[in-house]
Specification:
With 328 residues, this protein is of the alpha/beta class. It is built from 12 helices and 16 strands. Strand 2 and strand 3 form a beta hairpin. It binds nicotinamide-adenine-dinucleotide (NAD).
């Protein structure tokens, strides 16, 4: 089994690479090579099989073709410019999120055998806001450029699947929490920050009201969904290659309640509220809940509750986050 992770140096790409390296197999087949591709050379996971690491631009067709060599069985396409960055710089978002996905499509099309392509789309490809509960056949009406670029990517990959160029599964990821390390340029960065920073002993502000709710999942669950998307029988999907996975609808106050259980009242007291209209303008368009029945039928596993999400952060990422930020 030959695998490529585009965006293999990012938050989820590194977690996926580490999981594949640990297991040495995917869907019961031994992994014979793994290619990690990102803007900078991605870190190497400890693996019993060869790991190729490439630095390049996803919008450069020759670089992408090198990252998806003949014989590739599975491509995880995670490379992207995230939400607030794509909103701030339209040209960059179009180049990476749209033209990058086109380069992936062309590289897969050049292969002899159509590879499975797992594409990370987003909750941000939907509109509807706080009151929406998106059904499985809900229409994608993005209220930001990033979401529009993801929705277009899904459509292109779905048509490429119909034509037999590749075999796509697009996972419309919820907001993934708790993101380790430092705050990033995603508009949803605060959702991780309001629990991560207090657990590190730091104060932070929340730009939205306590009753603001998000559709969320943990990095552990996201990686489980990627692996399932890479190995599932896609014959049952028909033309509909977009998956609304079974995430968790959780409010800021519920997250802070879980923070208090896991980190105590002192940790909870480190969060104060400071409205930020720019962030609110982006995230308030995202739906806070989905029905996600089809995904459960297709074998995608249910996200655990908020307390489990925070406990997973403590187990998996607290020590590495402290080391990255030079904290004791
Ligand atoms: N983390 C979330 O909450 C979330 C939610 C919904 C969807 N997603 C999607 O999941 C995927 C992974 O998210 P993540 O949180 O790991 O993001 P990330 O920013 O940590 O990783 C994305 C990677 O893409 C790389 N990249 C950006 N521009 C590139 C270019 N021109 N060429 C090559 N690589 C480039 C970045 O360097 C980065 O390592 C992304 O496609 C993102 O849009 C994430």
């Amino acid at each position: 089994m030959r695998i490529t992770i585009l965006g293999g140096g990012g938050f989820l790409g590194r977690k996926l690479a580490a999981r594949l390296a640990r297991e040495g197999q995917l869907g019961g087949k031994a992994i014979t090579s793994l290619t990690l591709f990102d803007l900078n050379v991605p870190p190497v996971p400890e693996a019993a099989f060869p790991v190729r690491r490439l630095a390049g631009d996803i919008a450069e067709p020759t670089a992408v073709a090198e990252a998806i060599p003949p014989g590739t069985d599975v491509v995880f396409h995670l490379a992207a410019v995230v939400s607030a960055a794509a909103e701030a710089d339209f040209d960059l978002g179009m180049r990476v999120n749209l033209h990058g996905t086109l380069a992936v499509l062309e590289a897969c099309r050049a292969l002899e055998k159509a590879p499975r392509v797992v594409f990370t789309s987003s909750v941000a490809s939907f509109g509807g806001g706080q009151d929406a509960v998106i059904p499985d056949d809900g229409r994608q009406l993005p209220a930001n450029s990033y979401g529009a670029q993801k929705a277009v990517g899904e459509l292109l990959l779905q048509d490429a699947t119909r034509r037999g160029f590749l075999d796509a599964v697009s996972i419309r990821l919820p907001t993934v929490i708790v993101r380790p390390g430092r705050p990033n340029k995603a508009a949803s960065s605060f959702v991780s920050a309001i629990v991560r920073e207090p657990l590190l002993g730091l104060t932070t502000t929340c730009p939205v009201d306590p009753d603001f709710a998000i559709w969320a999942c943990s990095p552990r669950r996201a990686v489980e969904w990627f692996l399932h998307a890479a190995t599932m029988n896609t014959a049952t999907l028909g033309l509909d290659r977009g998956i609304n996975p079974p995430g968790l609808s959780v409010s800021v106050s519920e997250l802070l309640g879980a923070l208090e259980i896991v980190g105590g009242t002192e940790a909870r007291s480190r969060v104060t509220f400071a409205p930020d209209p720019a962030i609110e303008a982006i995230v308030s368009g995202w739906p806070a809940a989905f029905t996600a029945e089809r995904a459960l039928t297709l074998g995608f596993t249910q996200q655990e509750d908020a307390r489990a999400v925070l406990e997973a952060f403590l187990t998996d990422d607290l020590a590495a986050t402290k080391a990255e930020r030079a904290m004791s």
